[in-house]
Amino acid sequence: MYEAGPFHIPLTSVPMNDPAQGGRPFRWIAAAGAFSAGAAVALGAFGAHGLREILPPEMMAVYETGVRYQMYHALALIAAGLAGRSALNPHRRLLIGASWAFGCGTLLFSGSLYVLALTGLRALGAVTPAGGLAFVAGWALFGAAFLRRARG
């Protein structure tokens, strides 16, 4: 049994010798990352070709920040998905947690920046830092998945 703080996670809960079974959620995580990356490319192109003449420079910079962070974390989702499919990684739950944090961070951080840039609505200003915290939590979980050693 592996102990992670107050949680007791049996290693047998994820079939370690069958990547097809244990890796099933990670296929979806990598696919979500790929779709998010594609959306970031489309949003970036929309910004460069459709918004540059409409938005003031400071709002264009806000929009571009949202696109940039969406792409960074789309790539992180792909990396987490690929790492989790490895039968050698016993800390898949940490990778799943990191993936959720990256996804929620993208929605909160980049989403709020898109809304701010396109509408000027500053009421969502408190949402952006929450998305940033989700990104930080995701990176911490991602790193922990590689630093922790299996005990057994």
Characterization of the model:
The chain has 152 residues and is mostly helical. The protein has one domain. It contains five helices and two strands. It has a two-stranded antiparallel ribbon. A hairpin with a 2-residue loop joins strand 1 and strand 2.
Question: Can you lay out the helices and strands and say which pair or pack?
Answer:
Layout: E1 2-4, E2 7-9, H1 19-22, H2 24-51, H3 57-84, H4 92-119, H5 127-147
Antiparallel strand pairs: 1-2
Helix pairs in contact: 2-3, 3-4, 4-5
Quick structural summary:
The protein has 152 residues and is mostly helical.
Largest sheet entry: 2 strands, antiparallel
How helix-rich are the residues, as a percent range?
A: over 70%
Please trace the helix and strand order, writing H or E for each element: EEHHHHH
Order of strands, widest sheet? 1-2
| Basic shape | elongated
